[in-house]
Each structure stands twice: as C-alpha cells, then as structure tokens.
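[step 3/7] fold_predict: job queued, chain A
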Amino acid sequence: MWNMQSVVTPNPPHPAAPAPFNMAQYVLRHAVDLGDKIALSVVAADGVDDSHWTYAALSRAVRNVAGGLLAQGLSPGDRVLLRLGNNVDFPLAFLASIAAGLVPVPTSSQLTEIEITKMSALIGPKLIIASEGITLPAPQPNLPVPQMLTTDELHALADHAADHTLAPFHQGDPDRPAYIIFTSGTSGQSRAVTHAHRAIWARRMMWEGWYGLHDSDRILHAGAFNWTYTLGTGLMDPWTVGATALIPAAGTTPAQIARLLATHGATIFAAAPGVYRQMLKHDLPNLPDLRHGLSAGEKLPSATRATWNTRTGTCIYEAYGMSECSTFVSGSPARPAPKGTLGYPQPGRHIAVLDPVGTPVPLGQPGIMAVHRSDPGLMLGYLGADKATADRFVGEWFLTGDTVSMDDAGAITFEGRSDDMMNAGGFRVSPIEVEAAMALHPGVHEAACAEVAVKADTTVIACFYTPETDEVPEQSLLDHAHARLAHYKCPRLFVPVETLPRGANNKLLRAKLRENYEAHH
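[step 4/7] structure written:
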C-alpha cells in the first residue's frame, strides 16, 4: 500500500525463501514431474542443427558436472570463473557450480586480457572453465594458479558419472553466496556483485509483475547465453515454472530470429531494445502464437514500441532494474505501464523515492529510487569493497542512483540519471573506465565519455578528447580502444574538442558534452 509519500509497501510481504535452500535445485525442481518435457531448445536458422534438452537430461547433466567438480578437490564456497561462449556450456557450468555449493562468476567472452585479469585477481578463482579461443586471465605473481577445465572435459562430466558420485544439491542458508556478477560502478572500477541463493526466490515477483509467465509458455530470448539477462529471463525463470526455453544458436541474425519465433511457436519473446530495432528493419512473418514481448537492459524507444505493436499486434512490456537487484519495476500483461512511465513496483517489492537524507519525498516529486534492504533479490554486497557497499545504503534503503518520481497509483517515471553511467546494448558502462583507457593513447591529452543520441531511437558511446597536438586519426583511437576494452565498451564516436567543460569544483560535466553534441547534430 502507499500513502502521500512515495513509498510502496508489500501487503502481504513476499515470503522468505525456505531453509535449507539451493538455487539450482529450485530452478530444476520440475525434473521430477516433467522429466520428458523439453526444457531447452537451441534453435538454428536452418533447423538442422537444433538441439533439445529435456528436464531430466538437464538435471542429470548438472548433477553429473557438480559431482565431477567436487571430485577434483573443490569445496563449497570456492569460486569458479566462467570463460565460456554462447552455447549451452554456460548455463550447464553455472547451475552445476551452484548445485555443488560453489560460487560461479559469469563473465563476458568479449573481455580483454587486461580486463579479465583484474577481475580474476579480485575474485581469486579456484577453477576456470573455459572455451577454446576465449581470453584467459594472465598469471598473477603471489596468487595461486587456478585449476583449468576445458569444455571437452565439461562435456565428459555431463555425459556420465563414471568416476564420481552423482552430486546431491548442496544445502544451506539461503543467504549464503550463490554467484557473483560484475558491474561497472561510478568510480570506474568494475564491482563484483555477490548474490545469495535467495536471489532466485525473488524472481517469483517477476512472473506476474513482468512476464505473465506460465508453464505452457515457450519463451524465446534473443540474447547470448553468457548474458545475465538471458540467464535469468531466458533460462532460469522458464525452468522454474516448467516452461520451455528457446535460445537462438550463435550467429543468428535479427531477421532469422523473427522466423524462429514463428517456426517454434514462441509465446513470449525477450530481447534488448536494439534487437527489436534491427528486426523491424526486415519483413516480419505472422506470429499467431506470440502473446507479447519483453524488454530490458536499456530504455525502449517509444517509436520502436509503437512500430512493433502495429506490425505484430502484440505489446512489449519493459522492466527497470540493475545488477545489484535484477528487475523490480515493470509493466506487465496484468498491469501495463502508463504511457511515459517505467511501470509499477512488482507485487511484493518494497520501494521508495527518497530525498538526499533518506526521507521519502511527496508523491509526484523527483527523488532517488531505492529498494528496501529486506528485498530477497538484493545483493549481499560488493566483494572486497565493504565501504562501497555501505555507501549504497541510507538506513534500510539501497540507493539505485537514478532519479524518478512516483504518482498516486504507484507508477514510476524516470527523470534522469543521477550519475553518468552509459548504456551499450544493455550493458551499463562506466565513463571513467573508458576515459582511463583512452587517456593512455599518446595523442590524447584528456578524455571524457558520454552516451549521446545519434538518431531519435539510437544512442552510442562518444569519446570527447583534447589532442596533445593534432587531431588523432579515428582508426588509431579505435584500435587503441579495442586493445584495452571489451567491444561493447568501445566508443563509436571520437570528437576532438579544445577543452572539456568543468564545474566550479572542477568536476567534469559530461552531461554538458552530451547536450552540446546533440544540439548541433
């Protein structure tokens, strides 16, 4: 319920996760009653290379791998770095690690050696599971060398339990660490976000609060396996309710995705806004089975939403969230978001809009979006960064850092970012991280990065820089960026400027750069 202040209190509160608890066991609970049902289909454009996993086969493979990992001397609580490509190896290794009580750390396959080495040094993995051709961390002096497991060895473990016992699901406190994901912070340093086993329990609030998900659904997610949006919305949530997950094979184009929706009778489609935009450039087949689409990762342009609705006759329901708490505000089939808003806090969420001292603001006034500390989906904290964790809280509230307002029905309107974080294809990117990399170029004196609009519905990362002497060739800047940053973090625009705008306290005014650029282009 809510009052004249911008607070939504769950009534009744969302129940706590049962104890003892294991996330992987909960995700695969339907292996018992739906063993022969297809849990996952990896679908290819030609239809020839499709692969299918039943609930029973998926659960058996996960437990086989879990037993194999423990047989190698790993112990519950040990961390496992995942360096895997866009295939079923990723969810298999992820769930098997959690089943065994280990703590998997999924990472983007696009990361450079510099980036993944820093991450590995922070988490101290006991094991790295890696696909051939994906960059590995460099050896670090004074740090133990982790064990290695190839995908061939992973498959061998999944296929049979010849030399180890099929692992039971490791049981324990639902508040114990389950997995770690990386996100960029406003300091420019990638933060390792530690999530508890209870995080999967919190996702129950999305079933009706966003998805409208049922066990009869066939949900096709257009993202890569190793993206956490795909992992949650495209795989774990469908499996938890007993639905079927459809994932396009690696290399599938947006035009082919539309055909796969039709061919495989997808009832729900999930993607980032950029995928919807690309699909709408092509003819779309009739989609008689599709009920609606889902969007997250970045703001969905209103033009994209309207065009999709006109051409398919279906709606897109959008969700707002962050790595520290997944999604918690959304529109849904049961309660669509009013025009111009993000939607409503999902049923069971405890949300507030706060002033700088942590007091809820009156309805209709802007403030900082906050999530109550009791939310089961909220992170345990940033690994190795207790102060950074504490700084995100005011009293019992976790501060998202985004400015919003709440109306008298509880709908949330996004007012602007309170920081300068950028968005690249659904990934949040710190401008400080990109600026630090670009400042290492010998021809760059200073650099500032901002997300700028290049079309009505398209934004890109732009690097504004002051040259040491002459303007630097763009190709030189591109090569420099790609050598130090993952592809999605690299600027698409390089704009030489005489000076970078700064405020009275010498703070860099990235918003001013964005405004100036968009006003003249």
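[step 5/7] annotate
The CA atoms of residues 444 and 467 lie 5 Å apart.
The chain has 15 helices and 27 strands.
exit 0
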